[in-house]
Each structure stands twice: as C-alpha cells, then as structure tokens.
C-alpha cells in the first residue's frame, strides 16, 4: 500500500464562498479549488478555524473523483506566531525622528559688518591719523617756541653777541613757528569737522545694522519656534501612531485564538489497474463516487498514474458572529408619511476574516434544542384543603405545581449545561499562557463559575428551582416565610444565570431553541400583552391587500425622486424564515464593534398621529404614531432612531411587526396641546328629610387646548398647523365592590358600561368663533374608565366634564380597597 499523501491548508488562505448570518450565530462556507490528489490515500488538513466553531456543525463536501473516507476534528493550540502574522512596525521610517529639533539652542552667529560701514570706519581711522598729525604739528610749534624763548633769554649771559642779528633770527624763527602752529590748528579744525560727520554717519550705519540684526534675531527666533513646534508635532504624531499601534495590537490580540480547530479529511483517490478494462467498476457506496474526470496516464518506464482534481467545500457554524436589525424612522406630520431605513448590525467576534464573500442575512434562529426534548403533556393538578395545623390559616401554596417546578428546573438545567459547554472567551482568545493550563481567571469567569456552583448546589438540594419541599411542622408562620423565600429564589435564579454567564457564553447568552421573547420565564416581558396590543391596533385598520404574496421580491425605493445611495437587497421567504441577500460581495473582518449594512428602505403612508391625555396623573398630551407595515417585509424587534418633521427625538424600541400588521410608537409629549385639570368639586346631593343615605356629587373637568395656529407664515408647516388633532382623553370614576355603596355617573348623560358613545363637550372659552371647536364622544368602560374620543380644531379649546354621585349608608364612609 502506498504512503499517505499529506497536504495542509490554513483557513485564512481559503476563499470564502458565503456567510449566512443568523440572529445568534453564522454559517460559513469555504472552498478549496482544484485540489490535485495523488493515487491512494490523501490527507487534507485544514488548520486555523476559530475556536468558537460548533464542532458538530463542521461538514466537508466536494465534487470530483475521490471518496471521503474520514473526517476528524481536533481542538489544538494555535501554532501561528502573533509577530509573524502581524509584524511589529515600530522600526518604520515614519517613526524616525526628524531633524526639526537640531541646532534649536545653538547661539546665533555674530552679525557681519556691511561694506559701507567698513569703508566709513577706514575713513575714520585716516581722519584720526590726520588729527594726530595736526596735533603733533601744533605741539611741535609750541615746543619750538618755548625753545626759542629760552634761547632769547640766554643771550644776556653771553658776550660778544650781535643783538641785531639775534633779534632778526628770533623774529624769523618765531614767524616760521607761528605759521606751522596756525597750519596745524587749521588742519585740526578741518579734521574735527570731517570726523564729526563721519561719526554721525557711523552711528547711523550702526543703528541700521542693529535694526537688521534685531530683525534677523527675530527671524531666527521665529524659525526656532517653528522648528520647536514641528518637533512637538512630530512627537505628538509619533505618540499618536504608537497609541494607534497599541490599540490595533490590543484589538488583534482580542481576536487572536489561543486554540484553533483542525479538520483532517481523508480521501481515497482511484488506484489504477492496467489489466482491467472496467474503469468505473468501483463501489459507489461512499460520499462521492469515481467518475470519468480522472484520466489514467502511462509514462515510459513508470507505472500507471492517476491525475485527480476535485473541489472541496468546508462549512461550519460559529456562535461568535450574528446580526441584529437597526432602524431609522423618519415621520412627517405634514403628509402623514414615514420612511424606515432598515439596516443590519453585523458582528464578527471570531478570529477569521471573511473576504469578498456573499453575505446572507437570515431571520432563523438556526438553533434547535434537540430531538430528545419531546412536547410535555400537562398532568392533573390536584389540590386540597391543607390541615389547619400545617397551614395555620395562611395563604395556600398553590402558585405552581410540583410538576411545573420540576419541568422548569429541568429546562434551566439544560440551559446551564448548554452554556457550560462554551468556554469563556478569555480562554479562547489572547496572546499569553497555555490555554489548557490558565494561570489566572477574570472576574467575569469567577462570577460565572460561582453562579454555576450555586446552581449545582441547588440542583443537589432538589432541582434547579427546587422541588416541592417537605411540609414542615413548625406552624403556619414559618411555612409562609419559607414559601415566600422559595418564590423569591425562583424569580432570582434566571437572572443570576444570565448575569453570571460570560460575554461569549454562546447558548446561555442567546438561548437554546427559544426565541428572544421566550429566553427567560420572567413574565415582565409581556409578550402576550404586546400581541394583544398589536391585535387592538389591527382592529383600527382594514387590510387593503390580500394575504398571499410571492416568495421572492426586491425591495424598491419609496419614491422615484429620492436619491438612492445604496443597492437594495433581495428578500426571499421560505416557510418561517426570511433571508436578505446583500448586494455584491462583502469583507467581514473581526472587530469589537458591529458594522452596519443597509438592507432596505421602506415607505409608509397614511400614518395616523394621535394624542392620549391622562390628566388625572399628568396634565400633558402624549403623541403617538400608528403605522401599518404595508411592505412585504417582517420588521424584527430592534432599536430605531426617531425623527419627527426633521427633528431627531431619540431612540425607541420597534416591536416585531409582520407585513400588513400595525405597530405604535410613542413620540413623547406634544407641547402644543395644553391640558388643565383642576381639583375636584364636591357637594352634598339633594335628598329627602328622612333619607338613610349619605350622597355626595363629585365634579371634575378636563380642559384641552390646541394652541397650533390656524394659519402660519410657513406654507409647509401650514398644512400640519391647520389640521385638527385626534385625542383620546382618559379619566375614571370609582367602582364599588360593596352593594351598599353605589356609584352613578351623572354627566355626560346617558353613559352605560360598554354602551354606545355619547356626544359631549363644550367650548372652554367664550366667543362666537369658539363654537366650532370640533367634536367629542364619551364612553364608559369596565373598571370605571371614561374615554373621550376628541377631534379638536386648531386654535380651539374644549372642556370635558365628568360628574358622578357616590351614595352610601348614613354614618359610613368610603375608602379605597
């Protein structure tokens, strides 16, 4: 037998054919195209599947000349290295510091001397030299004169001196000395004038140079500040890049699998038999039979070879990807219309990126509780009067039966086991220690484990919600306390189970086979009440189209004038499931926040706006919009943004609404409708002298004013402002539970319980123009509720009166039950 031919593929390198998203999970189909097999046994290994895969949903199909003989699924540690898949970019060129900060604090160079100033200073040096020569001439003349005088004084001590000749010599020399002295003084004065002018010019040039140097210094300072600013910006950009890299790394680490599923597919390719002429005589009792696409090739000197190509398709389901509806509803009171933008919030919290794939949204829960869960049969619930020594006259324990508690406990035990099967996300994702030997656990994991321990203890003590405990012999008081504690425990345990489950808890977070409205037994969800409310809304409308509709259609834009900025999805209904095929191909990478994809845009017409007034509690008018789903789409429950006449109001919860049904949305308080509700007026009723009854007449009045003007300057708003408003005003009269206490309605006259409506109401203001305020019809319901259906014109006000009498035996008083 030939050896096994092995080949390995990483899931990230496989193309993604399609991704079908469900409300709580997703199904992925990947392809291996043109896979060449060697004759004999081939083992194809696919690694890197996200750890959130439900291994029981992994399937391998294919087309080609081979037989799938075995499929093995293992959960193994991730062999990839985080740094190899996501190389560290800390050494990028973008992170290298620039030279903006170089030479920032270097002292400035000395200012260069201008040529003009240099020439002037050279001239100054020459003038100073001339000045020194002039002074030297003057001083020389003075010294010679002194010497001449000294020579003249010395003649009287000499003998044989020719006095005439001496005097002539003295005169001649003195004149020569005087001429030299005068020339030196003149030269000094001339040099002084030239030197003064040169000094002034030097001062001017020095100041000019100083101004230029100051300007240069200011320019250098500005450049220094610019360089410092650029350096600060570079540092800030580098810090921002580092923070962004850290954020991206943390995000990638959050989706980096510690463990991955590995799928090993064993295939048998055809082994040729040259002596046989029956090429196709092979048993076909396998997944895929051999066909004629395999070509037998014989090479010289070699045996027969078989060239076999086939395509494999790997499909699996993960609980870490889903979609949820998101809406944006725009309502207009001018033309009573609305536009609903239907979006899908797609979540991918797996470790895989599904690139260039077809995305399909499905409303199916895609999760079943198992065939072992058969439909339970109701068992008889027999009760009897408990002995007085056990009950003590307290309330009997007949809130639920023992079988009900047992079945409910078994159901939540199944839910607990389903949630326990999914590992916490901290053990499946992250870069760190060995996932099979974790060194620490998060707070969510500890809380989750504590909740499981509590549930396990309660199970051992008699079921998840507790079985019917043995009757105690301590008296009625202790029995009642035990019963109340048991009821509180039953109400808290579902909440504890949901609160203690981890974020990636899989079936615990989404439920097993139940829908969202059935995920918990808490009656506060009031699904039946919501259904009843929708039924009441449907009664106010008449269906304008038949129930039958085609199984596939394309959602069209609301009007041809709208700017279509997206492609509509294709909708298809199959039984209980609706699918939306998003146009084109999409890439869904793992990310912590959902991405939004447009599914459809739906237009609503004939939107009914109405007001409800419960002045007894709050003197305001609540605006409500009643909308018929005239599209072919089933609107799922989800959040919607509300915009009324171009003003964003906030976010609300859109209820589930099938095609043709009606849903209502509260739009808050309408400040244009003013309501006043004065205190009740009480007076004694007129009775006979010897009457044995004490009667009191109570008078109430509700005043409602429509402050919208009849005409306004804005033509578009005039249509809404001038229209009458529809109001439902609610009040009540007390209901007697004692035959001796009688309550009768005096006004409006003619009211009877569930009887026909009575016209009532009068203008709240005086004036002839106030007579045409509108109309109102009053009716009396069970429970003492009085309804007024009011149509109030713009700018008008109406006063609705309510008067009733309470009669009771003389000497008694009435109190609330």
Automatic annotation (TrEMBL):
Residues 217-233, 534-549 have a biased composition (Basic and acidic residues). Residues 83-96 have a biased composition (Acidic residues). Residues 312-809 form the DUF4139 domain. Signal peptide: none annotated. Coiled coil: none annotated. It holds the Pfam family DUF4140. This is Protein F37C4.5. It comes from Colletotrichum tanaceti.
